[in-house]
């Protein structure tokens, strides 16, 4: 529900959100001109989080936007997000304006299924909007002894961000439309051998890139795929 009448959002907040703790911004910093790390404090021990959990923020009277949790520590009452400030919409303005001390009301956490402990190898693909998911995945991949690699398609100004976030085992690709080209995707190193058949692919970010990548995987491997397009040019609140 990216957009709805004000009265409907008011009813949802009044009737469905009272049990979700109020969150207070405790830290806010820019990792690049368009990527912001935001930390919240609150009482989160009664909430259930998993890899891929997201919260819906009401960014105006009539609009909501969905953001993936990058880190959660219930004992320290800490919740973090890595936010991509893109375009000129309400989501960007809301996140850009957040400052230490601000309080926000959010939905209860939900999740897109994207992780299975029994799968041993992971290739995780995305763009700036996927960095939070990458951060959420990382400790689980390490603690459960998975083999893993990250593919990021990033604008030039953001290509240093995975290193800032402490993400290992990654390859950065220019955000030049290459991941819309199925022939180009089929020549990626991951497909140059039999290992792709026992690799689990997690595809997020640009919905068109996800669609093209998924098609190549299906046509050339028997691999397991988790996919979810986070955004699509011209579509609000995907």
From TrEMBL:
<dbReference type="GO" id="GO:0016491">
    <property type="term" value="F:oxidoreductase activity"/>
</dbReference>
<protein>
    <submittedName>
        <fullName>Siderophore-interacting protein</fullName>
    </submittedName>
</protein>
<dbReference type="Pfam" id="PF00970">
    <property type="entry name" value="FAD_binding_6"/>
</dbReference>
<feature type="domain" description="FAD-binding FR-type">
    <location>
        <begin position="18"/>
        <end position="116"/>
    </location>
</feature>
<dbReference type="InterPro" id="IPR017927">
    <property type="entry name" value="FAD-bd_FR_type"/>
</dbReference>
<dbReference type="InterPro" id="IPR017938">
    <property type="entry name" value="Riboflavin_synthase-like_b-brl"/>
</dbReference>
<dbReference type="InterPro" id="IPR008333">
    <property type="entry name" value="Cbr1-like_FAD-bd_dom"/>
</dbReference>
